[in-house]
Design goal:
Layout: E1 22-23, H1 32-46, E2 51-55, E3 60-69, H2 78-91, H3 93-96, E4 103-111, E5 121-130, E6 133-145, E7 150-155, H4 172-187, E8 193-194, E9 198-204, E10 211-222, E11 230-237, E12 243-248, E13 251-252, E14 285-288, E15 293-294, E16 310-315, E17 321-323, E18 328-329, E19 332-333, H5 349-371, E20 382-388, E21 394-396, E22 401-404, H6 416-430, H7 440-453, E23 457-458, E24 470-471, H8 490-512, H9 514-531, H10 540-549, H11 562-571, E25 582-585, E26 600-608, E27 614-623, E28 629-632, E29 634-637, E30 640-645, E31 652-662, E32 667-670, E33 680-684, E34 702-706, E35 714-716, E36 738-740, E37 754-758, E38 781-782, E39 785-786
Parallel strand pairs: 17-20, 20-22
Antiparallel strand pairs: 1-10, 2-3, 3-7, 4-5, 5-6, 6-7, 8-10, 9-10, 10-11, 11-12, 13-21, 14-15, 14-16, 16-18, 16-19, 21-22, 23-24, 25-26, 26-30, 27-28, 27-31, 29-30, 31-32, 31-33, 34-37, 35-36, 38-39
Helix pairs in contact: 5-6, 6-7, 7-8, 8-9, 8-11, 9-10, 10-11
């Protein structure tokens, strides 16, 4: 498809340059038109029900879904699925622009979605790397059925970076020093902890175009036990030393204040109305002189080969949780079996907190393995720090969960869903979703808490009986993909995701019954965490849930739990997802022509995916931007329909699209963006070049500026300045010269304003025309401010 303007005008080119880093390049053509062409080709080979979610930032498809594609061979083992996934990456390259050479095998995980009423699936995940350097949160995921049919392709990687340079100019020590300096400048405190910097490729999305920046990633934190915990992860440009990104490393529980062991029953804290009761301690390591053991989920243990009496030691320590506090009980067991050991008796508040932290950290781990026995992500030793100085808060800092003592009007914060929420932040990192600034991390940590406890209230009685922190039954509405974090605070922003996922759970329990519905909700939620890597609260989250729920390789005809899932997201303000009732493919893409007689024949394959038969199939066209003319398309054979556009005078620009409706008044169009944009088009007439300039001589271009103090446009030969590692060493067409804002004459990047380059006036009033130019933009943006 070609984009053309059919209105006479004087051509003006204005190029503004702001700051400095590597622009993304790719051999795959980008843009909605190109993606639509590639989707059409994919549909022609694999079926009309395939759809894409287009990513405007990168100009490629983020998600390919909705259908099924037969595998090249039948997979038998994990390595086969990885091989198929890599082939899929190559076959779909022109849709997403991710080079297969940048993908490294990560995992293959079985998804038991038959527990949710769908069919079981597998996900093959690849990590994106260049020369061993990982792209931060860069993944490529292919969803398969058990026979190897491709069901979806999803990427959070970066296109066109295979040839990126990955040798840093500054040392890891220097990067850490810069981070320490930035931390002090921002907080007024010296950091007490600094991680060893690691090299990553950072997705800088703060400028007009996405930038791939080689960065040192390091985290500086203040964890002195006295001051409020603070911490930031810094991304330091590995070539210039500039800060290009920063994220919170401390994820507080947050209630507008600060947060808070027999153990607390249910989901409420240690308070007079909820006194400690005997709660089984799962996955605890028990030690003795005659051997060790580990308790099971019900607290049962057996030290093989030991004889009574036996001195045994119990601590809040096991393979999945290590709780600070130092509580130890060492009874002598007098019986060979049936010994009943009660720790923390009589109950002491600080020990109750230790028991709570141990109990609920292990409950979350066992919940994960119960939902999906093939998911090992929660099998790690979590450091749980309890009874910290301070009140009314809890936090996760990247390496531990941390909980405060009672005080300041708040309970001891180490209890139930508060523990699961903070550990949920840890799992966000492990699953590759992260804890993004738009509220996704907070909302999804809430999801873990609510799904594990199977109730909607987060932090019950946190600040006294009857109080709560957040509720899954909230009505906070989704603000759209353009501004998912629209409420100004990450916990409030996260309520959108928390509310949607809770309502999906409620809907599934209502439609399937309480027990089966909870199983279905848990299964889909876990499969979503394993199968995809969403990092923001966007509409693609719902599409991912529906793709996992689909059971026939055609999402267009609905999914087993479509109403429950779509309804939950709709209640939270997500836009309605309309099922694709009509599929339109193989539409004739007419070329430019000098034939004024016509007719110009357009064919299309049209199918009623739902509610057949088709009732209307039409070709709509317009000339020179005028009103659309409608022509009925006639069935020729099978699913192929045809119609003709009559001959047109020279010169004329003709745009057209196809539309169809099924028996339930569900419509479809091709291209998908019609009639608003991206129409198919052709020109009647002879194409000629009106103006071309390779800048080897002066042809009247005018350079101007507003407020700029450097970086003015000049015509010259580009120079690859070593100080700016990614500057090109030649112009775009190899002729020698171009206009540039940095060259051997001493120009630098643009500072203080805007610089503009304006072409000479060109008269294009008598013809349709195409305007094209090439440019190279090198940016370095820190904190959203041009440098």
């Amino acid at each position: 498809m070609k984009n053309r303007s059919l209105t006479g005008l004087s051509a003006l080119i204005a190029l503004s340059v702001f700051a400095h880093a590597q622009a993304i390049d790719s051999s795959a053509p980008k843009g909605l038109d190109n993606v639509q062409l590639e989707l059409d080709a994919w549909r022609a080979e694999h079926g009309a029900s395939w759809q894409v979610k287009f990513d405007n930032s990168f100009g490629y498809a983020r998600f390919l879904y909705g259908g099924n594609a037969a595998p090249a061979f039948t997979p038998r083992q994990d390595a086969d699925f990885l091989a198929l996934g890599r082939q899929v990456a190559r076959d779909t390259f022109k849709l997403h622009g991710i080079e297969a050479s940048t993908l490294v095998d990560d995992s293959v995980v079985f998804l038991p979605l038959s527990n949710a009423g769908s069919n079981d699936k597998l996900t093959a995940q690849f990590r994106q790397m260049v020369n061993g350097v990982p792209v931060e949160l860069g993944f490529f995921n292919v969803l398969f059925d058990l026979n190897g049919r491709v069901l979806s392709v999803d990427t959070t990687g970066m296109p066109g970076i295979a040839d990126m340079l990955t040798s840093p100019a500054i040392s890891t020590e220097r990067a850490s020093q810069i981070a320490l300096e930035r931390f002090y400048a921002e907080t007024g405190f010296a950091a007490t902890d600094i991680d060893l910097a690691e090299l990553v490729i950072f997705k800088n999305m703060s400028g007009e175009l996405p930038q791939a920046v080689l960065c040192w990633k390091t985290t500086a934190q203040l964890l002195d036990g006295e001051s409020e915990a603070q911490g930031f992860t810094y991304f330091i440009d590995a070539n210039t030393g500039r800060q290009v990104g920063r994220e919170n490393a401390i994820h507080h529980f947050d209630v507008g204040g600060t947060v808070s062991s027999l153990a607390s029953p249910g989901t409420k804290p240690d308070e007079p109305s909820n006194l400690p009761a005997a709660i089984a301690m799962p996955r605890m390591t028990i030690t003795s002189a005659q051997g060790n053991a580990q308790s099971d989920a019900a607290g049962n243990f057996n030290i093989v080969g030991a004889t009574a009496p036996l001195a045994v030691t119990f601590r809040f320590v096991g393979p999945f949780a290590n709780v600070t506090g130092g509580y130890v009980t060492a009874p002598v067991l007098g019986l060979a079996g049936g010994n009943n050991v009660v720790m923390n008796s009589p109950a002491a508040a600080l020990v109750t907190a230790q028991a709570n932290g141990f109990n609920w950290t292990n409950k979350l781990r066992d919940w994960t393995r119960t939902v999906n026995p093939a998911d090992p992500m929660n099998d790690f030793l979590a450091q749980v720090n309890v009874n910290l100085g301070g009140t009314c808060n809890a936090f996760f800092n990247g390496s531990s969960t941390n909980f405060y003592t009672a005080g300041g009007g708040c309970v001891n914060t180490c209890y139930a869903d508060v523990v699961v929420h903070e550990t949920g932040h840890w799992l966000n990192v492990k699953y590759g979703s992260g804890n993004g600034a738009d509220g996704f991390g907070e909302g999804n940590a809430d999801n873990f808490a609510l799904y594990v406890t199977d109730q909607p209230i987060l932090g019950a009685d946190f600040q006294g009986v009857g109080s709560q922190i957040r509720n899954g039954n909230n009505t906070r509405q989704f603000c759209g993909d353009a501004s998912p974090g629209c409420y100004g605070q990450v916990h409030a922003d996260g309520e959108v995701l928390m509310g949607a996922c809770w309502k999906v759970r409620v809907n599934l329990k209502n439609s399937l019954g309480a027990g089966p519905g909870a199983v279905a909700a848990n299964t889909i939620f876990n499969a979503w965490m394993v199968g995809y890597n969403d990092t923001q609260i966007k509409t693609i989250v719902e599409v991912h849930w529906l793709t996992l729920d689909d059971n026939d390789g055609n999402i267009g005809n609905g999914t087993p739990n479509f109403t429950a899932i779509e309804g939950g997201f709709r209640q939270q303000g997500f836009p309605q997802i309309a099922l694709a009732g009509v599929g339109i493919t193989n539409v004739t893409n007419l070329p430019d022509t000098t034939d004024t007689s016509g007719p110009y024949v357009v064919n299309a394959d049209v199918t009623a995916l739902l509610n057949p038969p088709l009732t209307v199939v039409q070709l709509k066209h317009r000339v020179n931007g005028g009103a659309f003319v409608t022509t009925a398309m006639n069935l020729v054979a099978g699913t192929t329909y045809t119609a003709a556009i009559p001959g047109q005078a020279c010169p004329s620009g003709v745009e057209y699209y196809v539309t169809a409706t099924n028996n339930a008044a569900q419509s479809g169009v091709f291209p998908l963006t019609a009639p608003g944009s991206g129409l198919l088009d052709f020109v009647v007439g002879t194409a000629s070049t009106t103006f071309s300039d390779n800048f080897q001589t002066s042809q009247g271009w005018v350079a101007s500026s507003v407020g700029a103090t450097s970086g003015f446009w000049e015509r010259g030969v580009p120079v690859n300045d070593p100080a700016w590692a990614y500057d090109p060493a030649s112009d775009g067409d190899g002729s020698g010269q171009c206009y540039l804002t940095q060259n051997a004459l001493g120009n630098t990047d643009v500072d203080g304003g805007t610089v503009t380059l304006t072409s000479p006036v060109l008269d294009m009033s008598s013809a349709a025309f195409t305007l094209s130019y090439r440019y190279y933009l090198n940016l370095s943006v820190a904190g959203g401010v041009d440098r």
